[in-house]
Each structure stands twice: as C-alpha cells, then as structure tokens.
C-alpha cells in the first residue's frame, strides 16, 4: 500500500513580530515636546517662590544685621567757624565691617548729637561710600543748630566729661551687586574722650605790674591746657573770672583760643586786684607761704565779635583750680621789695 501522508488538521500559524514598545527616554522627550510650556511655568513659579523671599525678606534682614554689627571709630572731630546758630564740622571716622557682604552705601542724611538725647544737635549729609572694613568716611559740612539747648548740652559734655557718647542716626540705602536697594537703620553710639573739665590747666611765667597797661591788664603769663580727645573746639576770645576763697579778685583773658588735641599753650592776660592779692599772703594772710589757690570759672566766649552762647554756658559750668606763687611772681616782676612790707 502506498504511504499516505497525513495532513495536519491544525491551520498553519504564521509568525508576526509585535510592535516595539517606546523606551523611557523617548517617552520623556515626547512628553516634554508636548507639555514643555507647563513645565516652564512650574519652574518659573518655583524659582519665584524661592528667590523672592531671599531677595525681599532674607537679604534686608541680613543687611540690617551686618549694619548692626558694624563699628564706627571717630578719629577726628574738628569744629570751626562758630556763629550763634551754625558751626562747621569736619568729622573723620573709620568703618569696621567683618561681614562677607560689602554693599555700596548711598549718601544719606544723619542726625548728630549726644547718644540718648531726644533732640539732635544737627543733621549732616554722609557721602556715598563703600562699606569695606577700614573704610574712611569724611563728613565735611556747616551744621545748622536748630536747638541751642541741645547744642549747649553737647558742648558741656565734650568740655567737662572724661568720656562721652556721640550718637549717629540715619536711614541709608544699600546695594550689593545685582540685588535691589535695601533701606536699613544706621544707629551707632560712639564712645569718645572728652576734655575732662580742662584738667591739667596750669599757669606759668606770670608777672605783674603795679599799674595797668594800655589794654587795662596788669598781669601776663602763659596758660597750658591739655586736650586728651580727638575733638577740636574753637573757643575764640574767652573771659574767665578769678576768685580766692569766694572773693572775686579779677578776670583773665585768652584770645583766639582753639583747643586742638594735645597740648595747648597760649599767652594769657589778666586784670587783678593787686591789693587783695597781697592781703592773702604775708604773716597776717591766710597763705603766708605766698602760694595762693585760684578758682577760675568761665564767663563768656566771643568769636568774630559775636558771643557764642553754647560755648559761654559750657564754660560757666566748668570750674578750674590753679595755684599762683605770689611771692615768686613779685620777685620775677621786680617787685620783691614789697615782700618786706608784708
């Protein structure tokens, strides 16, 4: 029998490849091609949410903190050309700033006066400056003295105190590179040395005459006034009253007095009641050794023919004590023979 090949009862299966699935990267690219604008909006919103608080909230706080931590050291404070209601000032100060930021400080209006005083002496324009550590800032201006009482109290503190505190206040704007301007409070208290009541005031090279000279004075000498501060005070022509144990004996006159830092040596002229002075020495006087204590108090200050009330009042509140060896003065003046009659 011939072999009969059996035909399969199953239909022939034709193999076909399934469509390839897209990869993650290709899908992501396709997604961003379609929805890029949505992601851009989200990114912008996120950046604004993060950056805006930094720029407009955090940076101003950082700037204010850095200003609070900065220091101010006044190295020179020179007053000049006083009038009854103005005075010129040249103030040099050094800024101390240890912060990592050193923004530009724009020019601003600052009040100057005694720290803690409710009323400033005046206002001055602080020039635009960098805020580098060690930056020197110079304020050079003529101050309008709107409150004479505040000015008088300021002058009294400078003349009478061993130390006093200068207050500087303003609201400057700062700018760090591309960041927007930020307004901060500049409120600094600077401890300064004062003239310490003119302590160390001394008379020397004193001579007297029996009769007044052409200018009405009868005693000449030299006065030494130390100034341990960095402040220069232009007192002008000053008149001071002299007394011994509460008894007025005359007046002394210092012309063109300008108290600069360091030693101040000036000629001095006085009108003294010689009869009273001689009564204090000798066997019957309270000072038989001839060394008489003088109490000296301010009377007035005149500059360019005008009395400067804030200097006059400060002088009146300053009392000085000096000694005068009347015996030696008589000898140096060629009047030693008078000692034999005492």
From TrEMBL:
The chain crosses the membrane at residues 36-59. It comes from the Eukaryota. Keywords: Membrane, Transmembrane, Transmembrane helix. GO terms for cellular component: fungal-type vacuole membrane. InterPro entries: DUF3712, Tag1. This is Uncharacterized protein. It comes from Talaromyces rugulosus.
